[in-house]
Amino acid sequence: MISSFLLILTVGALLPACLFYPQVGLMLWGWLTLMNPHQEVWGFAQGLQFNLIVAIVTMLAWLLSRERKLPPANPLVATFVMFLLLMVLSQATAVYPAYSWPYFEQFMKTMVFIFLGMVMLTGKARIHGMLWVYAISLGYFGVKGGAFTLLTGGSYHAVGPPNTMISDNNNFGLALVLALPVLFYLRRQTAHRLVRLALLGAIALTGLCVLGTQSRGAFVGLAVMAAVLIWRSRHRAAMLVGIALLAIPLVTFMPQSWHERMATIENPMEDKSFQGRVDAWHIAFAIAQADPLTGGGFRVGYLQDVADRFTGGGYEARAHHSIYFEILGGMGFTGLACFLAILWMTWRNAAWLRRNTGQDPGLRWAFDLASMTQASLAGYAVAGATLSLEFWPGYWLFVPLLMQTRRLVAERLGQASRGAPAPDPGSLPAGRLAGTPPNRAGTEAARW
Fold first, then answer.
1. Backbone angles phi, psi at 278, to 5 degrees
2. pLDDT tens-digit profile of 303-329?
3. Could you tell me the CA-to-CA distances from 48 to 71, 165, 204, 290 in Å, in that order?
4. What's the pLDDT tens digit per position in 217-227?
5. Alpha-carbon distance 21 to 18, whole Å?
6. What single-letter DSSP state applies at residue 435?
7. String of DSSP letters for 40-101
8. Exposure pattern of 406-436 as b/e (b: 16+ CB <10 Å)?
């Protein structure tokens, strides 16, 4: 009961700040979305719709403020808007609209949050603020789950917060895989020794928690993420040694049953669970073939009569367990094309940042952020092939974060190329870019 009062007092104390500073509301919204703290308390607060209250206050404050009302005009935003329109069209033409509506409503809330992120995450301070929200929200569960795995010897599955997108052990593991590079990034950016030590401890326990989920998909994602983390690091040898010093004891700690389970990755076609996924992918593909433009609607492939109707029978309906096939079955080939384009353009934004910031000490933070987030994106793209997290906000947040970071860097480079003093990107005014200079850097500033 006391925890419920503390949560209500925390949110209530921050709501007035949200009215005057909508970016505070966006970060509070992010905390409630990623962490779902009301699921961690006891008492009446569990049933309160904190997200809805904060979302309404934030959007109202944003509309009344001098903040930008539209995101920058670029191909990524255009594709994102097209994706939103396809979501609406898919719901309108769904095989069972009443069944798919709760999923559509949940997913659209995530998209509204991301849209506001595209508009308001306009400065280095705001970007770092959201990254700290990200790290605290998921680091909490990583530390908690890592401690659970340590105390139980890895004999039980570590699972995520109940009644959330990441409550399942597989989804939970992938969520933590995406969070680990963010923890690495913040540790690199933090000068305070105690904070750096705390983040190092959080990284170790979160890594242990990923293993403790006993999710084979998350383990593959962890391996891919670590490989890209080393590849993209400024100090590859040091990063390799550091990850090895963390990984070897953690893997050695896990029980024999865990090692036997992970060994089945080598022969996926002999695994009944994987075969069930393949059957579900057949269902999703058949639905998309029947309606390539809009698909069948969100999650309708989970229904046996839908599976029988589109495949002719012979396949057991179940969760598709793939970010790609979930989108394909729900939104058709057009939706999948937009989804892949957004993922690719976000990766390319990170690649652009690495190319244009590596030699500028003042932009080293952007270089590191691009490098770390590419590791997260790689883990998501690979492990997501067997997990259903296509609309998890923890992935989608990287879209506006990298887009706005690229915009800030392009603005700085544009001013420097004209001979003007290059300001700290964190001090640039929100929602405004300087005049477009007649050169490549200036063109980038105008486009992004």
1. -60, -40
2. 999 999 998 888 888 888 899 999 999
3. 31, 18, 34, 41
4. 999 999 999 99
5. 5
6. P
7. GS-SGGGGS-HHHHHHHHHHHHHHHSSS-SS---SHHHHHHHHHHHHHHHHHHT-SSHHHHH
8. bbbbbbbbbbbbeeeebbebeebebbebbee
